[in-house]
Design brief:
It is an enzyme of class 2 (transferase). It comes from Streptomyces flavotricini. Keywords: Amino-acid biosynthesis, ATP-binding, Cytoplasm, Glycosyltransferase, Histidine biosynthesis, Magnesium, Metal-binding, Nucleotide-binding, Transferase. By secondary structure, the chain is α/β, with parallel strands linked by helices. The protein contains eight helices and 15 strands. The strands form three sheets. The chain has a six-stranded mixed β-sheet, sandwiched between helices. The longest helix has 18 residues.
C-alpha cells in the first residue's frame, strides 16, 4: 500500500483532508484517529504533526506527505516538493519594534528569535549578516517584549499577532510558503503517480468552470477567442438555423467578465457549472 502523511491539526489539516476527499480518498472520521486505511485505493493515511511529516518522508518511512514548504525547508531532510497545493499561503518575515531597525542590514549584532532557525540562519548567511539566532517553539512575537531578542522571524498570514505585540514587519520576505505535496526521492510507482494526478485534477477543477452558451454562427470566431478552452471548445449546431452551442472550460476568476463580453457579442443562455474533478 501507498503510505501517505496528512497533517493531524492546525491550518493545514482541514484543507488537506478536504482535498483528499475531493480526490476520492477515504479520510478519518474522528480527530483522534492516527491511521486510516483506504483499501479500495490501496492507500494508508498517517496523521502526523505537520513539522514531522517531511522527516518521515525523507527517511523513507512514508512515500508521500502534505506539509508546508517552510516546514520542508526547515527540516533539511532528503525530501522533495512535487506539487504546490494552493492553500495555507503565508510569508516568512522579520519584525521589530518600530524604529529599532530600518532593514535587515541593521541586524548585525542583534538576536533574532524564531521557530525556524535553519531557514533564518541560511538567509542571514546569504546576506552577510552576523546575528545570533535563538530557537523558540511558538509565540515568538513575545520575545522582544520579554527581552529575549531584538528581532523575531515568523510566518505571517495577516500580521495581526505581530501588530498586537507592538511589532512591525520590515524588509523583503524571507520566503513564501504554502501547502505542498512532498515525496522521498525515487518514489515513482503507479500508485504515487495516480495520487499526484488526482490532486492535480482537484486543483484544475477548482481553478476552472465549465461555460456553456449559444451564439450566432457569424459571431463564433469572436466568441471562441474569449473561450478557447484547454485544447478547443466543443461547438454544436442548434435547431434554429444560424445558431450554435459552445462549451469550454474557462478560468473561474475570469468567468464573470467573460460572461459580460459574450453577452455583448450577442451570446445568450450563458451558463457556468462547477467542475468537481478532471484529468488533463
Amino acid at each position: 500500500m501507498l503510505r501517505i502523511a496528512v497533517p493531524n491539526k492546525g491550518s493545514l489539516s482541514e484543507r488537506a483532508s478536504a482535498m483528499l476527499r475531493e480526490a476520492g480518498y477515504r479520510q478519518r472520521k474522528e480527530a483522534k484517529e492516527l491511521v486510516t486505511v483506504d483499501p479500495g485505493n490501496r492507500v494508508e493515511f498517517f496523521y502526523l504533526r505537520p513539522r514531522d511529516i517531511a522527516v518521515y518522508v525523507g527517511a523513507g518511512r512514508l512515500d508521500l506527505g502534505i506539509t508546508g514548504r517552510d516546514l520542508l525547508l526547515e527540516s533539511g531532510v532528503n525530501a522533495e516538493e512535487v506539487l504546490a497545493l494552493g492553500f495555507a499561503r503565508s510569508t516568512f518575515r522579520y519584525a521589530v519594534k518600530p524604529g529599532s531597525a530600518r532593514g535587515t542590514a541593521d541586524f548585525d549584532g542583534m538576536t533574532i528569535a524564531t521557530s525556524y532557525e535553519n531557514i533564518v540562519a541560511k538567509h542571514l548567511a546569504n546576506n552577510g549578516i552576523q546575528a545570533t539566532v535563538v530557537h523558540l517553539d511558538g509565540a515568538v512575537e513575545t520575545a522582544v517584549e520579554l527581552g529575549v531578542a531584538q528581532v523575531v522571524a515568523d510566518v505571517v498570514e495577516t500580521g495581526t499577532s505581530l501588530r498586537n505585540a507592538g511589532l512591525e514587519v520590515i524588509g523583503e520576505p524571507i520566503m513564501e510558503s504554502e501547502a505542498i505535496l512532498v515525496r522521498r526521492p525515487g518514489t515513482d510507482d503507479p500508485g504515487a503517480r495516480q495520487f499526484l494526478r488526482r490532486l492535480q485534477g482537484v486543483l484544475v477543477a477548482g481553478a476552472y468552470v465549465m461555460m456553456d452558451y449559444d451564439c450566432r454562427a457569424e459571431h463564433l470566431e469572436d466568441a471562441v477567442a474569449l473561450t478557447p478552452g484547454l485544447e478547443a471548445p466543443t461547438v454544436s449546431p442548434l435547431h434554429n438555423e444560424g445558431w450554435v452551442a459552445v462549451r469550454a472550460m474557462v478560468p473561474a476568476k475570469e468567468a464573470q467578465q467573460i460572461m459580460d463580453d459574450l453577452y455583448a457579442l450577442g451570446a445568450r443562455a450563458i451558463l457556468t457549472t462547477a467542475i468537481h474533478a478532471c484529468r488533463l
